[in-house]
Amino acid sequence: MADQRCDTYRVPMATYEYLCLSCEQPFEERRPMTGDLVRTAMACPSCGSD
Questions:
Q1: Residue 19 and residue 24: Cα distance in Å, rounded?
Q2: Angle at alpha carbon of residue 27, lines to 22 and 31, rounded to 5°
Q3: C-alpha–C-alpha distance, residues 1 and 41, integer Å
Q4: CA triple 44-48-50, angle to 5 deg
Q5: How far apart are CA 50 and CA 41, in angstroms?
Q6: What is the C-alpha separation between 38 and 46, in angstroms, rounded?
Q7: pLDDT tens across 5-17, in order?
Q8: More exposed terminus of the chain, fewer Cβ within 10 Å: N or C?
Q9: Across 24-35, average pLDDT
Q10: Which pairs with CB-CB distance under 8 Å and at least 24 residues apart come from 39-42?
């Protein structure tokens, strides 16, 4: 029987805390710790505002 290994690469994730400027509700978003977070608009889950 062949040796079955599962090599996985895990991307480090962080929980970012946001405050919606429209409805003032706080919310969290799990995102990779890589990439450009500043240019990615996050929609508020309460009111949908960016």
A1: 6
A2: 120
A3: 50
A4: 65
A5: 6
A6: 21
A7: 666 777 788 898 9
A8: N
A9: 86
A10: 42/18
Dmax (CA) for the chain in angstroms is 60
DSSP string, 23-48: T--EEEEEEESSS-STTS----TTT-
The single-letter code of the amino acid at 9 is: Y
Q: Phi/psi class of residue 48: alpha, beta or left (left: φ > 0; alpha: ψ in -120 to 50)?
A: left
Flag whether the pTM goes above 0.70: no
- Cite the beta strand spans of 1-50 per DSSP E: 13-19, 26-32
Residues in the chain: 50
- Tell me the C-alpha distance between 29 and 16, whole Å: 5
